[in-house]
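Tutorial handout. Part one gives the primary structure; part two gives the three-dimensional structure as tokens.
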Amino acid sequence: MAGEHGVGMVDTVDLLIKVAKEIYSAVHPLLGTVDARKIVGSGFGGDKTRLIDAVSEKVAIEYLERNNFSCIFVGEECGVRRIGSSPNFYLIVDGVDGTNNAIKGIRFASASLALSRTGFLGDIEAAVVMDLYNGETFLAERNSGAKRDGETIKPSEIRCLKDSIISINITKNTGAARRLLPIISRAKGIRSFGSAALEICHVACGLLEAYIDLRGVLRTTDFAAGMLILKEAGGIFLQPNGEEIPNVPLTEVKRFSIIALANKELFHEISSLITPSTSLQGGQTTIC
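Part two.
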């Protein structure tokens, strides 16, 4: 198609910000409304697709098509979609991370976008997470640090659990809850907000010391952007056993347990307190 262009012709972060703003403009008026919660189909990972989710991806795709970008679009709802005839980058989009919050009007939900030229998680080179309530924007570009509304960010300097505010997600998983009891009993405070991407960014800027999800259900679309932002800020993003997230294809549904932290000292303390598990979760073995 004449006039098509790829990411090499535009700043990668600038593109992600523009797409995120399109999502924000379309989604913000729907937050907390009856229409937002309408079920309109099933998503890429098998979850129900709400109207607000479908709208977020629709406007993102329309922006790319309108501006003649050619890419492989990987959406949490629509799955893998080729845009244009000569794609040269992969755009990973979770238009509404925290859908349950968004449809109820709970003020914690985000749009999460990441870009890779190869289609692999380890090659994510730019990321943006935008708060869908107030437009606050976290961004990062590989080897260039991370920012929050234009200001450079870094994680908390707190290095012991007793002084730490930790966010966890144990939704529908009593096994994960039991494994985290030693941490819950020792941490200064426990929170659970409902948007993994935004919570990871709050670790990146020092509002939280850690975010933990041991359920084995987080998809790469949930954390791809937040992972880069946290790492570029200087934080730690690992599996509970201390291993890096493998360099998996972004076009496939892969699920993980993750720990996002301010520093290695906190990881060592937290990982030492997690009760081992050999149970099966979601049809796969959780290795910790």
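Part three, for discussion. Residues 12-27 form the longest helix (16 residues). The CA atoms of residues 82 and 173 lie 36 Å apart.
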